[in-house]
Amino acid sequence: MGLFMQTLINGILIGGIFITIAVGFSISYGVMHIVDFAVGEWIMLGAFTAFWLNMYTNVDPLLLIPFIALFFALIGYLFQPVIQKVVNIKHRSAAMMALAFTFGLSTLIRGSALTLWGFNNRNLITVLSEKNVDLFGITVPAIRAGATVFSILVTAAFAYFLYRTKTGITIRAAAENKTVAGLMGIDGHRISRLVYSIYVGLTAMSGVFIGSIFSVFPDMGLRYTAFAFFVVVAGGMGSFSGAIVAGLMLGLISSFVSVYMGGAYVFLILFFILYLILVFFPKGILGKGW
Amino acid sequence: MLKMKQLTQPRVIIFILSLIVLCTLPWVVSSFILRIATGIMMWIGLALSWNMLGGYMGYISFGHGASFGVGAYITGLLMMLLHLPFFVALIISGVITYIFAMIVGYPTLRLSGSYFAIGTWAFAEMMRQLVLVLDTTGGPEGLRLPPMLNDNFFYFVMFGLALLVFLTAYFFFENSDFGLKVKAVREEEVAARTLGLNTTWIKNQVFALSSMFAGIIGGAFAYWITYIHPDSVLGPLIADQMVIMVLLGGIGTLFGPVIGAIVLYVGNQYMLAAWGQSSAYLIILGLAICLVILFLPEGLLSLPRVFKSTTKGAFARLFSPPRKTRI
């Protein structure tokens, strides 16, 4: 029973972080209609930025989070016109070209990271690392609990932004129908740029948590791209509640499979479930996706 | 069928001459160059097989490496467990990959666009994880095949397979009703269905056919390399390279994948020789995709058209597929 509860709590805590990534990812898909294969690489870059900054300035990685989020939001803001150029290419399958473009981008970032920093694992040590909270006989690592709480707060703030502010409403309008939104005077390019920058910022920020819970290595991107796809596809693209359910589901599945079946089976089971969900519930398990 | 007049066209003469040159290659060049030529043939076949699905039908798959790996593993298992001769194992693995692709394709092809790309990608990763945990496939230890040290043999096997895929692409996709139907699916699937085309059948056939070719080439690769590992035949790099070769050369054309395969494979081997096994290859690969998509979305094949004014279009006419007035 103790093991079961421990696994359950761990699963929920891992899943919490993926909700933030999924929310940014699916809103950027909704506006730009691009599936970003580079999502895991932004996570990796966020984690590495925190690692190097921590190494040279000795500031705790958790305090660096606002800086990293802003820095990557700026990178996304500056980089988005390039992706927009690909989407606007006069080609019979522009959307597919954009997909292949992000795929190339992810290969480029991963290759650069591997060449620059080698294959070694690095640890991101924060003030919360190695500390535990005891909760009714279950040990909860403080960093996981902190990451989950922070992620939920950020997601809630983002939800408030999307549903209650004027800019958020224009973003949702652009996601629903870009042409009609354009006729209502909403600048689609400006919205795309804003959304992409928010998405990159949120993703890189989650990278700091992921790096401090697990470890930081240049090859980590592929793994988290798979996780992000799982959450977004299972939850349904662009669905808030779906992302939350799917994020928790991902955490629970990976934690239960690795405890009761063995670590080698985690990806087999996850990809199998992802494939089944794609084929049988293409709008997500709650049926609320686009 | 072919008439005498068609046989004397310059295009056909160049094709036959290049076939003769390629057949005499093993007796002309060193064994190092021959191995590279074998690799080029293999990648031409793979790129052309991906192009059937991604280029002519417009279904971008990031999981085509799964067919390659499944073919390689089935050939390896048939040769090691049942001690079948190579060609029998190759044919059986082709049939099995065809049936396997039919079964997998039926649900997967209901997806389209980005969802199809993610679905095939997830499926390919699933296959890799499956092979890693199974006992019969050797798991992470990989699988050894009986060694066969005859470079000429493998050159001719790969050459034959590449030629087979090329001719299939030419006769079934460039110059037939079937090819027009496939292109109709790419342009507007709903409209194609309202015109009475059985799009489900067409999509399944193309998917199974291109998977079968990838599987057969995978089987030949397994026997050539004699040691296969889940990461070497089912890894994401196989599918990535197929996609990049086609994009680099020109998607949806006959010669684009050929040119892309030659350029990328020669570049890859040159880098291997110059710098050794390096992750810098990934940088070049990624940069190549991004730059090609940004500045040359129709691939290297469109370069002659870009410089048409200087070459008076002669180059472009030579390499572009024959234009048909029939739509």
Structure report:
- The complex is a heterodimer of chains A (290) and B (327).
- Chain A is an all-alpha fold.
- Chain A has one domain.
- Chain A has eleven helices and two strands, in the order H-H-H-H-E-E-H-H-H-H-H-H-H.
- A two-stranded antiparallel sheet of chain A has the order 1-2.
- Chain A is globular and about 60 Å long.
- The mean pLDDT of chain A is 84.
- Chain B is mostly helical and 327 residues long.
- Chain B has one domain: ABC transporter involved in vitamin B12 uptake, BtuC.
- Helices cover 74% and strands 1% of the residues of chain B.
- Chain B has 17 helices and two strands.
- A two-stranded antiparallel sheet of chain B has the order 1-2.
- In chain B, helix 3 packs antiparallel against helix 10, helix 4 crosses helix 10 and helix 12 runs parallel beside helix 14.
- Chain B is globular, with a radius of gyration of 20 Å.
- The two termini of chain B are 21 Å apart.
- Chains A and B meet through helix 3, helix 4, helix 9 and helix 11 of A and helix 6, helix 12 and helix 14 of B.
